[in-house]
Amino acid sequence: MTRQTSLLYLDGVSVSFDGFKALNDLSLVIAPGEMRAIIGPNGAGKTTMMDVITGKTKPDSGEVYFNGVVDLTGEDEASIAELGIGRKFQKPTVFESHTVWDNLELALKAPRGPFATLFHIISGAEKSRIEELLTLIRLSDKRDELAANLSHGQKQWLEIGMLLAQDPKLLLVDEPAAGMTDAETMETAELLKDIARTHSVVVVEHDMHFIRALGVKVTCLAEGSVLAEGSLDHVSANERVVEVYLGR
Ligand SMILES: Nc1ncnc2c1ncn2[C@@H]1O[C@H](COP(=O)(O)OP(=O)(O)OP(=O)(O)O)[C@@H](O)[C@H]1O
């Protein structure tokens, strides 16, 4: 795939912290509509890669393009969010003292990026959008519940719904299954598969049952670059992947 036809294009990206290369000539291409799983040992550079995509960290060298033409290295975090790249951090950050419905309503009205919310009358179209999101995130029957009363997994789903309310083109999801029960983990894989029907998704995760359930192309990072890429079976059969990651 060429840069022009890609959704996300990283080529030769390097980032150093005090001489240590967190990313080392990393190249990775995500197609429009694709969901990609990223695996790799601690310190492989997964978070740094997400930081580069979202503008939190500027690469020392390399190209980072969104939608084929937008040079993300020239944009700040707010404008990258505005371009339609949403990021879900590991820890859920929902408004605990608001209901599930109100959290989604606030997210729907917020401009993309850092929240700056204003209350005004909600339209019929906005109500149906919230209903749709509630169904997608499996929280229709919890709509009037305070977010504080949700389980950890449900809070993660709510936050995913809040990101989707901003209609991102690309959703970056950092370890969504961490701290979840097995049932929640499997339901989260189904949820992301539903989301991937209409969005591009990059998901970082260590849980191999979860990765298998996603059934998508996998990239294994190690020492700041791509170690192996392909189906989970292909990547799992790679000796170096077993050595540095799976065989731990
Ligand atoms: N701001 C920073 N200053 C110095 N070193 C950093 C900084 N951020 C990351 N690093 C180092 O860069 C390397 C890559 O870290 P990164 O967090 O990207 O890895 P990761 O693959 O996300 O790991 P994990 O699975 O543990 O989250 C690590 O060795 C880390 O200590």
From TrEMBL:
Would the keyword ATP-binding be found if you checked this record's keyword annotation?
yes
Domain ABC transporter stretches: 8-248
Q: What is this protein called?
A: Urea ABC transporter ATP-binding protein UrtD
User: What InterPro entries does this protein's entry cite?
Assistant: AAA+_ATPase, ABC_AA/LPS_Transport, ABC_transporter-like_ATP-bd, ABC_transptr_urea_ATP-bd_UrtD, BCA_ABC_TP_C, P-loop_NTPase
Q: Which Pfam families match?
A: ABC_tran (PF00005), BCA_ABC_TP_C (PF12399)
Q: Origin, by domain of life? A: Bacteria
Is NAD among the key words of this record? no
Annotated signal peptide: none
Assigned keywords, A-Z: ATP-binding, Nucleotide-binding, Transport
Q: Which GO terms describe its molecular function?
A: ATP binding
What organism does this protein naturally occur in?
Roseibium litorale
Against PROSITE patterns, the record matches this protein to: ABC_TRANSPORTER_2
